[in-house]
Fold this protein.
Amino acid sequence: MNKFIDIGVNLTGSSFKTDVSQVIERAQQVGVEQLIITGTDIAHSEQAINLSQQYESVCFSTVGLHPHHASDYSNDTGSELREMLGHKQVVAVGECGLDFNRNYSSRKEQIRAFEAQIEIAIDLKKPLFLHQRDAHEDLIAIVKNCRNDLSQVVAHCFTGTVEEVNDYNLLDMYIGVTGWICDERRGQLLQQAVKQIPLDRIMLETDAPYLLPRDLKTKPDKKNRNEPCYLPHIASAVAKHMKVEEAQLVAAAFDNSQSFFGIRPLS
């Protein structure tokens, strides 16, 4: 059986409140051995750490402030993030970045919080787990300015273009691909873009419970809820559009994820 690491799972969300253990079990039954739970604010980062403690060696977590919550950033927030990042199960700073699509926080607030979290990642020598929506040029300019000081960087939940991949490649960034690629309507740009992602820079993720692959033949019991158990389905689509053997893609993504986050395999 192929082995997978889902690098982005929102297990702290309300839709997983009653059946986290079953979700993890279903994932492991199809070869998704390890999960990285996304931290999006202080409360959800704490919950992510708690889950990673509860399912130690299977679950890990990120710690950060999503751009939607950037207006909450303060010096105290930064101190709390630094403290949580000292936990052995925490493997990256994030989800952080820029989202100029919805602007739940102002652009100025987003940039301030993003740059502060980059500083934390540099100080603590932690990888950076990025969110970007409708802000590619601004994000690239910020990352480029400090890339030499950062250890590793991944563009989480990438849905963009060939040109965006090329920019990430120039900055030696990793790229996480989701079930967005399975959408014949919205995923066409991504289907072309993945061809430009080097095999040694690709990672796989579901971003569950969001982005349920549109082309699933068997739908989930909970309507429209994505789960880590669908990661092999996503991998098949990524391999198809990258025009590489599925086994080769899966092995590369697994190795990249292990190396990037510094986690040991179960076996």
